[in-house]
Design a protein that fits this description.
This protein is of the alpha/beta class and 376 residues long. It contains 15 helices and 13 strands. Strands 3-2-1-4-5-6-7 form a seven-stranded parallel β-sheet, with helices on both faces. Strands 10-9-8-11-12-13 form a six-stranded parallel β-sheet, sandwiched between helices.
Protein backbone atom coordinates (compact mmCIF):
# COMPACT_ATOMS: atom_id res chain seq x y z
CA UNK A 1 0.00 0.00 0.00
CA UNK A 2 1.42 3.41 -0.91
CA UNK A 3 2.21 5.90 1.84
CA UNK A 4 -0.20 8.83 1.92
CA UNK A 5 -0.23 12.37 3.23
CA UNK A 6 -3.37 12.60 5.34
CA UNK A 7 -4.89 15.67 6.98
CA UNK A 8 -7.09 15.05 10.03
CA UNK A 9 -9.49 17.49 11.64
CA UNK A 10 -11.43 16.79 14.82
CA UNK A 11 -12.49 18.40 18.08
CA UNK A 12 -9.22 18.05 19.98
CA UNK A 13 -10.61 18.18 23.51
CA UNK A 14 -11.88 15.19 25.48
CA UNK A 15 -14.61 13.25 23.64
CA UNK A 16 -14.95 10.01 21.72
CA UNK A 17 -14.65 11.52 18.22
CA UNK A 18 -11.41 13.33 19.17
CA UNK A 19 -10.05 10.14 20.76
CA UNK A 20 -10.75 8.06 17.64
CA UNK A 21 -9.32 10.72 15.28
CA UNK A 22 -6.13 11.05 17.33
CA UNK A 23 -5.58 7.32 17.85
CA UNK A 24 -6.21 6.75 14.14
CA UNK A 25 -3.64 9.41 13.22
CA UNK A 26 -1.06 7.87 15.56
CA UNK A 27 -1.61 4.38 14.16
CA UNK A 28 -1.48 5.58 10.55
CA UNK A 29 1.79 7.37 11.32
CA UNK A 30 3.18 4.14 12.81
CA UNK A 31 2.33 2.46 9.49
CA UNK A 32 4.41 5.02 7.59
CA UNK A 33 1.80 7.57 6.48
CA UNK A 34 2.45 11.30 6.96
CA UNK A 35 -0.18 12.80 9.25
CA UNK A 36 -1.20 16.46 9.57
CA UNK A 37 -3.59 17.39 12.38
CA UNK A 38 -5.45 20.62 11.59
CA UNK A 39 -7.18 21.55 14.85
CA UNK A 40 -7.77 24.44 17.21
CA UNK A 41 -5.41 22.99 19.84
CA UNK A 42 -3.11 20.02 20.19
CA UNK A 43 -5.27 16.85 20.39
CA UNK A 44 -5.09 15.75 24.03
CA UNK A 45 -3.91 12.22 23.28
CA UNK A 46 -1.05 13.53 21.11
CA UNK A 47 1.09 13.75 24.18
CA UNK A 48 4.55 12.96 22.88
CA UNK A 49 6.76 13.60 19.86
CA UNK A 50 5.82 11.63 16.74
CA UNK A 51 8.25 12.26 13.84
CA UNK A 52 5.68 11.84 11.06
CA UNK A 53 2.88 13.80 12.74
CA UNK A 54 2.60 17.57 12.38
CA UNK A 55 0.14 19.71 14.28
CA UNK A 56 -1.20 22.77 12.41
CA UNK A 57 -2.99 25.10 14.78
CA UNK A 58 -6.07 27.00 13.63
CA UNK A 59 -5.78 30.56 14.95
CA UNK A 60 -9.02 32.44 15.40
CA UNK A 61 -8.65 36.17 15.85
CA UNK A 62 -11.33 38.28 17.39
CA UNK A 63 -11.91 41.78 16.00
CA UNK A 64 -14.33 44.25 17.49
CA UNK A 65 -16.49 44.15 14.33
CA UNK A 66 -17.12 40.44 14.78
CA UNK A 67 -20.03 39.55 16.98
CA UNK A 68 -18.73 35.94 16.81
CA UNK A 69 -15.13 34.97 15.96
CA UNK A 70 -15.21 33.09 12.57
CA UNK A 71 -13.69 29.73 13.60
CA UNK A 72 -15.18 27.88 10.63
CA UNK A 73 -13.63 30.25 8.07
CA UNK A 74 -10.28 30.22 9.87
CA UNK A 75 -10.36 26.42 9.87
CA UNK A 76 -11.17 26.26 6.12
CA UNK A 77 -8.39 28.77 5.47
CA UNK A 78 -5.87 26.67 7.44
CA UNK A 79 -7.03 23.47 5.74
CA UNK A 80 -6.51 25.09 2.30
CA UNK A 81 -2.99 26.22 3.30
CA UNK A 82 -2.05 22.74 4.54
CA UNK A 83 -3.55 21.04 1.43
CA UNK A 84 -1.28 23.23 -0.74
CA UNK A 85 1.87 23.37 1.42
CA UNK A 86 1.95 19.70 2.35
CA UNK A 87 0.47 18.34 -0.90
CA UNK A 88 -2.10 16.31 1.03
CA UNK A 89 -3.69 13.29 -0.67
CA UNK A 90 -6.67 12.98 1.69
CA UNK A 91 -8.44 15.18 4.23
CA UNK A 92 -10.35 13.17 6.85
CA UNK A 93 -12.72 15.16 9.05
CA UNK A 94 -14.36 13.78 12.17
CA UNK A 95 -17.77 15.13 13.24
CA UNK A 96 -19.79 16.67 10.41
CA UNK A 97 -20.39 20.11 11.87
CA UNK A 98 -18.70 22.30 10.78
CA UNK A 99 -15.75 20.19 9.65
CA UNK A 100 -17.27 18.66 6.50
CA UNK A 101 -18.39 22.03 5.14
CA UNK A 102 -14.98 23.56 5.99
CA UNK A 103 -13.22 20.74 4.13
CA UNK A 104 -15.33 21.29 0.99
CA UNK A 105 -14.64 25.02 1.11
CA UNK A 106 -10.90 24.39 1.66
CA UNK A 107 -10.72 22.00 -1.30
CA UNK A 108 -12.30 24.65 -3.49
CA UNK A 109 -10.04 27.41 -2.13
CA UNK A 110 -6.94 25.26 -2.73
CA UNK A 111 -8.16 24.36 -6.26
CA UNK A 112 -7.26 20.78 -5.36
CA UNK A 113 -8.60 17.34 -6.27
CA UNK A 114 -7.88 16.05 -2.76
CA UNK A 115 -10.15 13.29 -1.46
CA UNK A 116 -12.48 14.34 1.35
CA UNK A 117 -13.60 11.76 3.90
CA UNK A 118 -16.17 12.63 6.57
CA UNK A 119 -16.82 10.44 9.59
CA UNK A 120 -20.09 10.94 11.43
CA UNK A 121 -19.85 10.28 15.15
CA UNK A 122 -23.28 10.70 16.68
CA UNK A 123 -24.57 13.96 18.05
CA UNK A 124 -23.49 15.69 14.81
CA UNK A 125 -26.50 13.84 13.35
CA UNK A 126 -28.77 12.79 16.21
CA UNK A 127 -28.81 16.21 17.87
CA UNK A 128 -27.57 18.79 15.32
CA UNK A 129 -29.27 17.04 12.39
CA UNK A 130 -32.58 17.77 14.06
CA UNK A 131 -31.85 21.51 14.14
CA UNK A 132 -33.26 23.21 11.05
CA UNK A 133 -30.63 25.97 11.31
CA UNK A 134 -27.91 23.36 10.61
CA UNK A 135 -29.43 20.35 8.83
CA UNK A 136 -29.06 21.84 5.30
CA UNK A 137 -25.35 22.48 5.87
CA UNK A 138 -24.88 18.97 7.30
CA UNK A 139 -26.56 17.48 4.19
CA UNK A 140 -24.32 19.62 1.95
CA UNK A 141 -21.16 18.51 3.78
CA UNK A 142 -22.18 14.85 3.50
CA UNK A 143 -23.15 15.04 -0.18
CA UNK A 144 -19.99 16.87 -1.22
CA UNK A 145 -17.63 14.53 0.65
CA UNK A 146 -16.09 11.79 -1.49
CA UNK A 147 -16.68 9.14 1.15
CA UNK A 148 -18.81 9.32 4.29
CA UNK A 149 -18.53 6.83 7.11
CA UNK A 150 -20.48 6.45 10.34
CA UNK A 151 -19.42 4.62 13.49
CA UNK A 152 -22.39 2.20 13.51
CA UNK A 153 -25.13 0.86 11.23
CA UNK A 154 -27.60 2.54 13.54
CA UNK A 155 -26.00 5.94 12.85
CA UNK A 156 -26.13 5.26 9.09
CA UNK A 157 -29.91 4.60 9.34
CA UNK A 158 -30.50 7.63 11.54
CA UNK A 159 -28.57 9.85 9.12
CA UNK A 160 -30.58 8.55 6.17
CA UNK A 161 -33.82 9.16 8.06
CA UNK A 162 -33.03 12.60 9.47
CA UNK A 163 -30.82 14.17 6.78
CA UNK A 164 -31.89 12.20 3.69
CA UNK A 165 -28.63 12.82 1.84
CA UNK A 166 -28.07 11.75 -1.73
CA UNK A 167 -24.90 9.92 -0.69
CA UNK A 168 -23.98 6.42 0.40
CA UNK A 169 -22.71 6.05 3.98
CA UNK A 170 -20.48 3.16 5.04
CA UNK A 171 -20.06 1.81 8.55
CA UNK A 172 -16.57 1.69 10.00
CA UNK A 173 -16.76 0.80 13.68
CA UNK A 174 -14.72 2.50 16.34
CA UNK A 175 -11.73 0.66 17.73
CA UNK A 176 -9.85 0.46 20.98
CA UNK A 177 -6.19 1.30 21.46
CA UNK A 178 -4.99 -1.99 22.93
CA UNK A 179 -1.65 -0.46 23.90
CA UNK A 180 -3.39 1.89 26.31
CA UNK A 181 -6.47 -0.08 27.33
CA UNK A 182 -5.67 -3.33 29.10
CA UNK A 183 -5.84 -4.51 32.69
CA UNK A 184 -2.88 -2.92 34.43
CA UNK A 185 -1.38 -3.29 37.86
CA UNK A 186 -3.53 -0.84 39.87
CA UNK A 187 -1.00 -0.47 42.70
CA UNK A 188 -2.79 0.95 45.73
CA UNK A 189 -5.25 3.11 43.73
CA UNK A 190 -8.29 1.52 45.35
CA UNK A 191 -6.91 2.30 48.78
CA UNK A 192 -5.94 5.84 47.73
CA UNK A 193 -9.54 6.45 46.71
CA UNK A 194 -10.71 5.24 50.13
CA UNK A 195 -12.28 2.04 48.76
CA UNK A 196 -12.01 -1.04 50.96
CA UNK A 197 -10.64 -4.22 49.38
CA UNK A 198 -13.95 -6.10 49.81
CA UNK A 199 -16.03 -3.34 48.16
CA UNK A 200 -17.10 -3.73 44.52
CA UNK A 201 -16.47 -0.81 42.18
CA UNK A 202 -19.04 0.42 39.64
CA UNK A 203 -17.86 3.00 37.09
CA UNK A 204 -19.49 5.46 34.68
CA UNK A 205 -17.53 7.68 32.27
CA UNK A 206 -19.16 10.42 30.22
CA UNK A 207 -19.40 14.12 29.45
CA UNK A 208 -22.39 14.45 31.82
CA UNK A 209 -24.78 15.73 29.14
CA UNK A 210 -28.53 15.15 29.52
CA UNK A 211 -28.45 12.31 26.98
CA UNK A 212 -26.13 10.33 29.29
CA UNK A 213 -28.88 10.02 31.99
CA UNK A 214 -26.41 10.07 34.86
CA UNK A 215 -29.31 10.11 37.35
CA UNK A 216 -30.25 6.62 36.13
CA UNK A 217 -26.69 5.52 36.90
CA UNK A 218 -27.01 6.79 40.48
CA UNK A 219 -30.50 5.29 40.93
CA UNK A 220 -29.26 1.90 39.66
CA UNK A 221 -26.27 2.09 42.00
CA UNK A 222 -28.59 2.90 44.94
CA UNK A 223 -30.38 -0.40 44.30
CA UNK A 224 -27.14 -2.33 43.87
CA UNK A 225 -25.75 -0.82 47.08
CA UNK A 226 -28.73 -2.21 49.05
CA UNK A 227 -27.52 -5.71 48.14
CA UNK A 228 -23.72 -5.45 48.53
CA UNK A 229 -20.91 -3.14 49.65
CA UNK A 230 -19.82 -1.02 46.68
CA UNK A 231 -18.57 2.36 45.50
CA UNK A 232 -19.62 4.28 42.38
CA UNK A 233 -16.96 6.17 40.42
CA UNK A 234 -18.43 9.00 38.34
CA UNK A 235 -15.77 10.14 35.89
CA UNK A 236 -16.19 13.23 33.71
CA UNK A 237 -17.72 16.65 33.89
CA UNK A 238 -20.57 18.51 32.25
CA UNK A 239 -23.92 20.20 32.82
CA UNK A 240 -25.54 17.29 34.68
CA UNK A 241 -22.81 16.97 37.30
CA UNK A 242 -24.24 19.59 39.65
CA UNK A 243 -27.83 18.24 39.62
CA UNK A 244 -26.52 14.73 40.19
CA UNK A 245 -24.39 15.93 43.13
CA UNK A 246 -27.48 17.60 44.58
CA UNK A 247 -29.46 14.39 44.15
CA UNK A 248 -26.81 12.32 45.95
CA UNK A 249 -26.38 14.80 48.83
CA UNK A 250 -28.13 13.59 51.99
CA UNK A 251 -28.96 10.13 50.62
CA UNK A 252 -27.74 6.84 52.13
CA UNK A 253 -25.20 6.48 49.28
CA UNK A 254 -23.58 9.92 49.71
CA UNK A 255 -20.33 8.39 51.03
CA UNK A 256 -20.29 5.74 48.32
CA UNK A 257 -20.39 7.98 45.24
CA UNK A 258 -17.05 9.46 44.20
CA UNK A 259 -17.10 12.34 41.71
CA UNK A 260 -13.67 12.18 40.10
CA UNK A 261 -14.08 14.88 37.41
CA UNK A 262 -12.27 14.59 34.08
CA UNK A 263 -9.52 11.99 34.13
CA UNK A 264 -7.01 11.05 31.48
CA UNK A 265 -5.65 7.76 32.80
CA UNK A 266 -8.90 5.89 32.45
CA UNK A 267 -7.34 2.45 32.11
CA UNK A 268 -6.14 2.64 35.72
CA UNK A 269 -9.64 3.46 36.92
CA UNK A 270 -11.12 0.66 34.81
CA UNK A 271 -8.55 -1.70 36.25
CA UNK A 272 -9.97 -1.27 39.76
CA UNK A 273 -13.57 -1.48 38.51
CA UNK A 274 -15.89 -4.49 38.49
CA UNK A 275 -18.79 -3.12 36.44
CA UNK A 276 -19.33 -0.35 33.87
CA UNK A 277 -22.70 1.36 33.38
CA UNK A 278 -23.71 3.43 30.32
CA UNK A 279 -27.43 4.18 30.40
CA UNK A 280 -27.69 6.86 27.70
CA UNK A 281 -30.78 7.94 25.85
CA UNK A 282 -28.78 8.36 22.62
CA UNK A 283 -25.46 6.74 21.81
CA UNK A 284 -24.21 6.10 18.31
CA UNK A 285 -21.56 3.65 19.50
CA UNK A 286 -20.38 4.06 23.12
CA UNK A 287 -16.59 4.03 22.83
CA UNK A 288 -16.24 3.92 26.63
CA UNK A 289 -17.84 0.46 26.56
CA UNK A 290 -15.02 -0.83 24.35
CA UNK A 291 -12.41 0.81 26.56
CA UNK A 292 -13.92 -0.71 29.71
CA UNK A 293 -14.22 -4.17 28.14
CA UNK A 294 -10.60 -4.02 26.98
CA UNK A 295 -9.65 -3.44 30.64
CA UNK A 296 -11.73 -6.49 31.60
CA UNK A 297 -14.75 -4.68 32.99
CA UNK A 298 -18.15 -6.13 31.99
CA UNK A 299 -20.79 -3.61 30.90
CA UNK A 300 -24.49 -2.96 31.29
CA UNK A 301 -25.89 -0.45 28.80
CA UNK A 302 -29.13 0.75 27.29
CA UNK A 303 -30.58 -0.86 24.19
CA UNK A 304 -30.36 2.34 22.13
CA UNK A 305 -28.61 3.56 18.97
CA UNK A 306 -25.43 1.67 18.12
CA UNK A 307 -24.97 0.08 21.57
CA UNK A 308 -26.52 -3.27 20.50
CA UNK A 309 -23.80 -3.46 17.83
CA UNK A 310 -21.20 -3.31 20.61
CA UNK A 311 -22.98 -5.41 23.26
CA UNK A 312 -24.79 -8.65 22.53
CA UNK A 313 -27.19 -9.20 25.41
CA UNK A 314 -26.09 -12.00 27.73
CA UNK A 315 -22.86 -12.63 25.84
CA UNK A 316 -20.45 -9.72 26.39
CA UNK A 317 -22.69 -7.68 28.70
CA UNK A 318 -26.33 -6.88 29.33
CA UNK A 319 -28.75 -4.55 27.56
CA UNK A 320 -31.64 -2.87 29.36
CA UNK A 321 -34.45 -0.62 28.19
CA UNK A 322 -34.03 3.11 28.77
CA UNK A 323 -34.85 4.07 32.37
CA UNK A 324 -35.17 0.49 33.67
CA UNK A 325 -32.91 0.97 36.70
CA UNK A 326 -34.47 -2.06 38.40
CA UNK A 327 -33.20 -4.34 35.64
CA UNK A 328 -29.76 -2.66 35.70
CA UNK A 329 -29.50 -3.44 39.43
CA UNK A 330 -30.71 -7.01 38.92
CA UNK A 331 -28.06 -7.75 36.26
CA UNK A 332 -25.46 -5.74 38.17
CA UNK A 333 -25.88 -7.69 41.41
CA UNK A 334 -25.87 -10.96 39.46
CA UNK A 335 -22.56 -10.05 37.77
CA UNK A 336 -20.95 -8.73 40.94
CA UNK A 337 -21.92 -11.78 43.00
CA UNK A 338 -21.08 -14.48 40.48
CA UNK A 339 -17.33 -14.63 39.73
CA UNK A 340 -17.77 -17.36 37.10
CA UNK A 341 -20.34 -15.30 35.15
CA UNK A 342 -18.12 -12.20 35.55
CA UNK A 343 -15.13 -14.07 34.11
CA UNK A 344 -17.17 -15.50 31.22
CA UNK A 345 -18.42 -12.04 30.25
CA UNK A 346 -14.87 -10.69 30.29
CA UNK A 347 -13.58 -13.53 28.12
CA UNK A 348 -16.36 -13.02 25.57
CA UNK A 349 -15.80 -9.24 25.63
CA UNK A 350 -12.10 -9.65 24.83
CA UNK A 351 -12.97 -12.05 22.02
CA UNK A 352 -15.53 -9.59 20.55
CA UNK A 353 -12.93 -6.80 20.66
CA UNK A 354 -10.40 -8.94 18.87
CA UNK A 355 -12.90 -10.03 16.20
CA UNK A 356 -14.77 -6.79 15.53
CA UNK A 357 -13.07 -3.78 17.06
CA UNK A 358 -9.32 -4.36 17.00
CA UNK A 359 -7.29 -1.32 16.01
CA UNK A 360 -5.47 -3.37 13.35
CA UNK A 361 -8.67 -4.36 11.52
CA UNK A 362 -10.32 -0.96 11.71
CA UNK A 363 -7.20 1.01 10.70
CA UNK A 364 -6.88 -1.28 7.67
CA UNK A 365 -10.47 -0.44 6.70
CA UNK A 366 -9.67 3.28 6.83
CA UNK A 367 -6.48 2.76 4.79
CA UNK A 368 -8.37 0.87 2.08
CA UNK A 369 -10.89 3.69 1.96
CA UNK A 370 -8.19 6.40 1.69
CA UNK A 371 -6.68 4.50 -1.22
CA UNK A 372 -10.03 4.78 -3.04
CA UNK A 373 -10.17 8.59 -2.77
CA UNK A 374 -6.52 9.69 -2.62
CA UNK A 375 -5.17 11.91 -5.38
CA UNK A 376 -3.84 9.64 -8.14
O1 LIG B 1 -20.78 11.30 23.66
C1 LIG B 1 -20.64 12.45 23.29
O2 LIG B 1 -21.50 13.31 23.50
C2 LIG B 1 -19.39 12.89 22.56
C3 LIG B 1 -19.42 12.44 21.14
C4 LIG B 1 -18.16 12.93 20.44
O3 LIG B 1 -18.30 13.61 19.45
O4 LIG B 1 -17.06 12.62 20.88
O5 LIG B 1 -19.49 11.02 21.13
C5 LIG B 1 -20.01 10.40 19.97
O6 LIG B 1 -18.91 9.84 19.27
C6 LIG B 1 -18.25 8.76 19.94
C7 LIG B 1 -17.07 8.30 19.07
O7 LIG B 1 -17.50 7.84 17.83
C8 LIG B 1 -19.24 7.61 20.18
O8 LIG B 1 -18.61 6.55 20.85
C9 LIG B 1 -20.38 8.15 21.06
O9 LIG B 1 -21.35 7.11 21.20
C10 LIG B 1 -21.04 9.35 20.38
N1 LIG B 1 -22.01 9.96 21.32
C11 LIG B 1 -23.33 9.94 21.10
O10 LIG B 1 -23.85 9.43 20.11
C12 LIG B 1 -24.16 10.59 22.15
Amino acid sequence: MRKLKIGITCYPSIGGSGVIATELGKMLAEKGHEIHFITSSQPFRLNKMYPSITFHQVEVNSYSVFQYAPYDIALANKMAEVIIDEQLDVLHVHYAMPHAVCAILAKDMAKSDIGIVTTLHGTDITVLGDDSSLSGAIRYGIEKSDIVTAVSHSLVSQTMELIQPDQEIETIYNFVDEQEYYKKDPGNLKELLGIAAHEKVVIHVSNFRKVKRVQDIVKSFELIRKELPAKLLLVGDGPEKHPVMEYVRGTSIEQDVLFLGKQENLSELYTISDLMLLLSQKESFGLVLLEAMACEVPCIATNVGGIPEVITHGENGYLVELGDTQKVAEYGVQLLQDPILHKQMIETSLMFIEERFSSKKIVEQYEAMYERVAKK
